[in-house]
Write a structure and sequence with these properties.
The longest helix has about 35 residues, at about 175-205. The chain starts with a strand and ends in a 20-residue tail after the last helix. It has 13 helices and seven strands. With about 350 residues, the chain is an alpha/beta fold. It has helices at about 35-40, 55-65, 75-80, 90-100, 115-145, 155-165, 175-205, 210-215, 220-230, 240-245, 270-290, 295-310, 310-330; strands at about 5-10, 15-20, 25-35, 50, 70-75, 250-255, 265. The chain folds into three domains: about 5-100, Nucleotidyltransferase, domain 5; about 115-205; about 230-330, no CATH class.
Length: about 350
């Protein structure tokens, strides 16, 4: 079988492969069970295999690369325009096969198992934070029906629950007090789990030299540094810092036509979690910048933007700069120097 390019539509149990030769002629269309995928590809000569970057795609890409093939992952929104007619597995595989052969197609870097370990660590921590937030919000709402009001935030709810249980509030029945005590124990257990996962992230950060370098950036701590490295690894798949920033959805969208440029808000494409961490870190920098006697030039620049455009725009602009500097640190193996100024012809940290 003279197949050179394959589009592989993956799922949980049923896969479909669409293959073409060097002239683009269809030479293979095959439905595969999950357990037979690797055995089938082991019988094929080395070829390019396109896969939509969805669930389990990184695993299959690594396994196909081990068999000698060249696996390419593509964002789902980039291969959809190549799907013809109705949606089904054969058409999806054909569209993926067509998309992977395009010279202008943009690909997703394949995660290593180490990257996925850190991503799992962050995913579990993010779930724990969400569960704690949901529980504290629920208790604030339920106790509000008894006329008991707490401030926002887990610390205030924790303190308020302790005060309610320590006192003798006549508004609460014995049954209500029993349920409040149960919720208090749940919050304590969640705090212990969160503390344990935060400690794990700190250890991961301390063990990785790249994370240690990123940790020196203003507004970037162990959580953001490890999440960024787990997402982009060494960043060398991006040609410049602005490409990393664009992949995180930080630059503005553009909707221009007829020579009239129209720039909108940030695009919000790509990794929502890392983008959120960078923006939260930038907000923290701006909030505490007033207490610094000699902020570095980057913070001074962000303060001028905040005075001119407002804190929200300044936070996103600073997050954009942080993403570009992070790329220079990772891809060029540099240390963060707040007094660094670009030399002529030096594009390590593009403006």
């Amino acid at each position: 079988m003279n197949v050179t390019t394959i589009g592989l539509d993956i799922a949980k149990n049923v896969f479909f492969a669409h293959g073409v030769d060097q002239h683009g002629k269809v030479v293979m269309q095959k439905k595969l069970d999950r357990g037979k995928v690797l055995a089938f590809f082991a019988t094929l000569p080395p070829c390019r295999v396109g896969i939509e970057a969805t669930g389990s795609a990184h695993y299959w890409a690594r396994e196909l690369n081990r068999l000698g093939h060249t696996a390419k992952l593509m964002p789902a929104q980039y291969d959809k325009p190549y799907v013809k007619r109705d949606k089904n597995d054969p058409n999806d595989a054909a569209g993926i096969c067509e998309a992977v052969s395009r010279p202008s197609m943009r690909f997703v870097s394949i995660n290593t198992p180490a990257q996925q370990d850190v991503q799992m660590l962050h995913a579990i921590r993010r779930r724990l934070v969400g569960q704690r937030t949901a529980l504290t919000n629920q208790m604030r709402g339920l106790l509000g029906e008894y006329g008991i009001v707490f401030g926002q935030g887990p610390a205030r709810v924790r303190r308020g629950l302790a005060e309610v249980l320590a006192g003798e509030d006549a508004r609460l029945s014995p049954a209500a007090r029993e349920m409040i005590a149960d919720v208090q124990q749940q919050l304590q257990a969640q705090d212990l789990h969160l503390t344990a996962y935060n400690a794990r992230i700190e250890r991961v950060c301390a063990a990785d030299a790249r994370c240690v370098k990123l940790d020196a950036l203003p507004g970037v701590g162990a959580i953001t540094a490890t999440a960024l490295v787990a997402s982009v690894n060494d960043g060398k798949q991006y040609q410049r810092g602005k490409h990393l920033s664009a992949s995180l959805g930080l630059p503005p969208r553009e909707h221009s036509s007829g020579g009239k440029q129209r720039v909108l808000g940030m695009s919000k494409r790509g990794n929502t979690y890392v983008r959120t961490l960078l923006i939260h870190g930038a907000r923290s920098v701006l909030r505490h910048a007033a207490t610094k006697t000699d902020p570095d030039p980057l913070i001074r620049w962000a303060l001028t933007v905040a005075a001119r455009r407002g804190k929200n725009i300044a936070a996103v602009a600073l997050a954009n700069k942080l993403a570009r500097i992070a790329w220079a640190i990772l891809a060029r193996d540099r240390e963060y120097d707040p007094r660094w100024t670009p030399r002529r012809g030096d594009s390590a940290i593009p403006a």
